[in-house]
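Sequence of N-acetylglucosaminyl deacetylase, LmbE family (Pseudarthrobacter equi).
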Amino acid sequence: MAALIQQDQSPFNPEIHRVERVLCFAAHPDDIDFGAAGTIAAWTAAGVQVSYCIMTDGDAGGFDPAHRADIIVMRDAEQRRAAQLVGVSDIHYLHERDGYLEPTHDVMRGVVRLIREIRPDVVLSMHPERNWRRIQKSHPDHLAVGEAVTRAVYPAVENPFAYPELAEAGLEAYKLPWLWLYAGPEERENHVVDVTGHVDAKLQAIHVHVSQHPDVAAMEAAVRQGMSVNAQRAGLPAGQSAEAFHVVAVNGPGTIAGF
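Predicted 3D structure, token representation.
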């Protein structure tokens, strides 16, 4: 049986903590749409500015050999159309090779640079821990994203002496308030977002990634079921849909510098 989501253990309270800017990290085009497009649609509908950073070009994805020569351009176009459906137009790439992503200092420097540029209230990232119940969530590139972003968030983003060339270029250190992680182990999840009103937008965004779906009907059924299970685990009323996250408070009223 899946573990219950302990909502009361989440340090984030949407009634108190204001979110105006969000920066989302993913390994491949379509990862964000599967993991968090409902939440992102809710954010943008409320006026939140959301940006994406896709670390690879998704060049090893797809199922049709005929797409190989054009897969990077195809997947970029799919991601941009999908993003528009949930209110996002600002998309960045690190252009790492699909299947070869590692949490190197070059990658972490790119993450720190973008966080310092955008200065979001929330960084949303794939989880650095493997999900043993559904290992497909834990592609090695996914884990690398989680590790690179988590390392970058603390301490590099807020350390003025980390990657000093960034500060010299005018990108000053920044204390990030929140880190939200998706696609991780269920037992880590401590926060749910009711996305019942944004299920159609999420599914439309996922459907755009036609190069990745050999069985569209099975994909949609699995996504709907996953959101329904999340809602049940969180004790939401029958018929509701939810996305689940591991929310970490990085900097807040009780944070002591260096600890």
